[in-house]
Structure formats: structure tokens, C-alpha cells
């Protein structure tokens, strides 16, 4: 299982609307995420707009590709694009570059066993 974390930046003037959109994500989008291998997916938002995403998946590249092939994702990404800074023409889901994991408690405890 891969643990993936990424950062994006939500525009300060759009924070409240962004939160509202995620309080009631479209059911079709939720089902698409689940069926394409996104597990334990969470978003955390700081007051200055820094967005931290976390998910677990068997294969992140495959999960991204499968989502990119769904019609609901294309609609969602088009609606979300205006919320973010510095996408440089990319869709938000294309700008999700995983951070490098440098510590995981359970992995290190397992090494001690």
C-alpha cells in the first residue's frame, strides 16, 4: 500500500467556498474515487490556503490514470481549477505531486521486531 501526501494552494478569497464544496462532494465523485483505488483520502486546509492531501492506494499512478478517465472527474477538475494558485495550466489533479515520505512509525517499529 502506498501512502501519498501532496500540497496545493487554495486562493485566499476562495477558502470558504472551497470548504463548502468539500462538505458535500458529489456522490458520483465519491464513488469514482473509491472504485479507482483511492482509500483513506483526506484533505487538510490551513487558514492561509495551504492544502495538504493524504491518501492510500495500491498504485498511485494507476489510481490517477483511472480517475482521469472518468467523466465525473473531468467535470470536478474543471469546477475546482479556479480555486487554486499556481497550477500553470494544469488541472488540480495533475498538479498533485507526491511528497517524499521520510518517516513512518509502523515501518520503523516493524524493523525493530
TrEMBL record:
Pfam families in UniProt: rhaM
Domain of life: Bacteria
A GO MF term: racemase and epimerase activity, acting on carbohydrates and derivatives
Record-linked InterPro entries: Dimeric_a/b-barrel, Rham/fucose_mutarotase
GO BP field: rhamnose catabolic process
Designated name of the protein: L-rhamnose mutarotase
Species in which this protein is naturally found: Marisediminicola antarctica
Amino acid at each position: 500500500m502506498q501512502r501519498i501526501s501532496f500540497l496545493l494552494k487554495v486562493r485566499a478569497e476562495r477558502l470558504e467556498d472551497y470548504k463548502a464544496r468539500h462538505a458535500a462532494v458529489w456522490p458520483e465523485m465519491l464513488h469514482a474515487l473509491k472504485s479507482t483505488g483511492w482509500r483513506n483520502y483526506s484533505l487538510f486546509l490551513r487558514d492561509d490556503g495551504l492544502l495538504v492531501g493524504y491518501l492510500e492506494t495500491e498504485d498511485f499512478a494507476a489510481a490517477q490514470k483511472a480517475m482521469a478517465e472518468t467523466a465525473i472527474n473531468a467535470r470536478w477538475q474543471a469546477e475546482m481549477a479556479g480555486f487554486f494558485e499556481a497550477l500553470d495550466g494544469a488541472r488540480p489533479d495533475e498538479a498533485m505531486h507526491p511528497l517524499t515520505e521520510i518517516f513512518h512509525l509502523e515501518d520503523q517499529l516493524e524493523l525493530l521486531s
